[in-house]
UniProtKB/TrEMBL annotation:
This is Protease I. Belongs to the peptidase C56 family. The keyword Aminoacyl-tRNA synthetase does not apply. One of its GO terms (biological process) is proteolysis. It comes from Micromonospora matsumotoense. Signal peptide: none annotated.
Amino acid sequence: MATTTLQGKRIAFLATDGVEEVEYVQPREAVENAGATAELVSLKPGTIQAFNHLDQGKTYDVDVTAADADAAGYDALVLPGGVANPDFLRTDPDAVRFVQAFFAAGKPVGVICHGPWTLIEAGVVSGRRITSWPSLRTDLTNAGATWVDEQVVTDGGLISSRNPDDLPAFCAALVDRFAAVD
């Protein structure tokens, strides 16, 4: 029997082509299994192409574009990684504004692997404690964050994780933190 701790919650997943498939699929399944409605927000309508490291994965249907999405309609945000995905997102002004709106409203945000690149562009990591894929350490430190090498780091409403190996702990932390949202 699935838990209903996120019943009535609406969670946005911001991703585009190049998303690491497992970092999108497992957190989405976790919040949906907990009772939430999840929606894929992306840069363009249609579908996005996921990857398993460098191998093509499945495609996923986009629910709404970042240009048309309203952060006010969501309870939380998840930013999956992959190398290409956050690199594309951070260059899109609508995606960056969408991320900034969650932080401005004090809503929880989950991010994994290379996903913090989008947070850096959004200007929301300074003064925060965060983890990521190790190669982002310098980028995050230069943006004013304190980078740590831990499985899951929670700093206020920001939940971060390093890589797919951390997904069980990351997914549990997302459900717990998102359930605390009124």
